[in-house]
Amino acid sequence: MTEGFYQAVKIIWDVFESMEKSSGYVYTGEQEAGKPHGYGVVIFNNGLQYVGKWADGLPHGTGRLTDKFKRYSYSGKWLNGIFHGEGSFELAGGDCYEGSWVCGLRHGKGYYRRSVGGWEYRGDWRRDHMHGHGFMNDFAAGTAYDGFWINGRRSSSGKFRISKENDYHGNRADGQIFGT
Fold first, then answer.
1. Does the pLDDT of residue 178 top 60, yes or no?
2. Which class for 25: exposed (0-12), middle (13-18), buried (19 or more C-beta within 10 A)?
3. Among candidate residues 61, 78, 110, the one where a domain is terminated
């Protein structure tokens, strides 16, 4: 998807991994065995803030992560410090993913909006790629595709809108369309 998306997720994982080794944060909330556990708020020196449920020192359950510089935010379910379950991730430029996460990856049903280039995708995801049935609308180009995807690429048969006046139903192979 976007480089900014992957960079933001990596920063988040690195911050939570370094929590035990660093004193670069302030935590207020419930604890167990000296670690965040239950409901709490953590503010990191780098501007990240997490508000929500914790288990054994990691975000676990429902929570919201924000960045004071407003570069990105995540609101949703967590499992052992990573996105897992339903959640919404937004980047400052307007890119947004809302849907299902598994082990920190977009997986299941979801909606992705790309502000630069002006397109959106709604459908199935597998391991962070558009995969299965989905619909993509490219507002800038005036085109759309409703069909099947494999690892982020249009595949197989589907319905293509080539222009506002011209729909195409058929197959696609190696980037070429075949049909009427």
1. no
2. middle
3. 110
Contact 112, 131 (CB under 8 A): no
Q: For residues 64 and 86, what is the distance between their CA atoms, to the nearest angstrom?
A: 12
- DSSP-assigned letter for residue 81: T
Q: Quick one: pLDDT at residue 32?
A: 93
**Domain, as residue range, for 126:** 117-180
The three-state secondary structure class of 42 is strand
- Whether 59 and 138 map to the same domain: the answer is no
Q: For residue 1, what pLDDT is reported?
A: 46
* pTM reported for the whole predicted model: 0.81
Total residues found in the chain within this entry: 180
Burial of 176 (0-12, 13-18, 19+ CB in 10 A): exposed
Question: Do 15 and 92 share a domain, yes or no?
Answer: yes
Residue where one domain finishes, among candidates 54, 75, 110: 110
122 with 79, same domain: the answer is no
**Cα gap 47→55, rounded to integer Å:** 22
Handedness of CA 125, 9, 141, 120 (dihedral sign): positive
